[in-house]
């Protein structure tokens, strides 16, 4: 078996790495100039574990493996580092301000609890305007998605994977209905299986197969800020902005409005510390209707689909399961609710 993975975002890189770990010949092709050149670079990269968060469709069957798979990846792959900071979110889901004690925690998923203003300020001492209450999830974490993707590609290469960037005009090649590989401006890459992991690009790639995929694009703006180290200690997520420290002295901030200036002003008024904007980009996140879409795209299995939101959270788990399916030919039951078409 030979596999071509289209898309060197975090999900495609994870699939390629896990295939290489199983000694499956794999080629990773990417139209951009390097790894994480697309929406992965614009990801807030907030990793939720077994507690809370949104887990649509089959994602709910993967959630309990997420934190363990991220710990495994840290052990296996140099350059993968998870920042286990916990998260603070508000408003709490049962009232405008929410209770400030734990009598109501039975309304929250296990692993989450409500804390009051004093506890919030203990966790975030430079938070000048904390809410009266917030939901604290100690198990939540974050990663630098670009660094992790690059580390996965390096590790895949070290295990024999081939990687090609600048793969413009990528198209599936078929023969009598069977996908035989991928054509790019640089040439043809033959394959027994082609894995489509190109985010919103999977819809165009799959079109020649006569398949209409229920994948939409959801725009999200991400700002990168320079700030004093430790200005923000947790993932802090309120109605005006979400912010976390991705590396020492570097923050990621996302917000629901179209006005960056207002969002940054709100952040500056909320936290006691100077910051400056390093950059701002809008990424288009792939959002499959009904949850992740993972599995064979053609009856013969020569085309395979791997698209999810949130790809960062799910990448180690999806990569492991997809590689196991392709290498062994045995379907992973954890992916049953991720199949296309939906059943």
Structural notes for this entry:
The chain is α+β, with helices and mostly antiparallel strands and 343 residues long. The chain has three domains: 3-81 and 144-214 and 289-338, FAD/NAD(P)-binding domain (3-Layer(bba) Sandwich); 87-135, no CATH class; 215-287, D-Amino Acid Oxidase, subunit A, domain 2 (D-Amino Acid Oxidase, Chain A, domain 2), CATH 3.30.9.10. Helices cover 23% and strands 29% of the residues. It is elongated and about 65 Å long.
Brief descriptors of the model:
about 350 residues, alpha+beta, FAD/NAD(P)-binding domain, D-Amino Acid Oxidase, Chain A, domain 2, 3 domains, eight-stranded mixed beta sheet, six-stranded mixed beta sheet, 7 helices
The CATH topology of the largest domain corresponds to FAD/NAD(P)-binding domain
* pLDDT < 50 runs, ≥5 residues: 96-102
How are the strands of the biggest sheet laid out side by side?
Answer: 6-7-5-15-16-17-14-18
Largest sheet: 8 strands, mixed
Radius of gyration: 21 Å
H/E topology pattern: EHEEHEEEHEEHEEEEEHEEEEHEEEH
Top CATH class of the largest domain: Alpha Beta
Portion in helices: 10-25%
Please report the total strand number as a whole number.
20
The N- to C-terminal Cα distance equals 28 Å
What coarse outline follows from CA principal-axis ratios? elongated
What name goes with the CATH superfamily of the largest domain? Answer: FAD/NAD(P)-binding domain
The CATH architecture of the largest domain = 3-Layer(bba) Sandwich
Q: Strand percentage, roughly?
A: 25-35%
Mean pLDDT: 92
Helical segment tally? 7
**Any idea how many domains?**
3
Structural category: alpha+beta
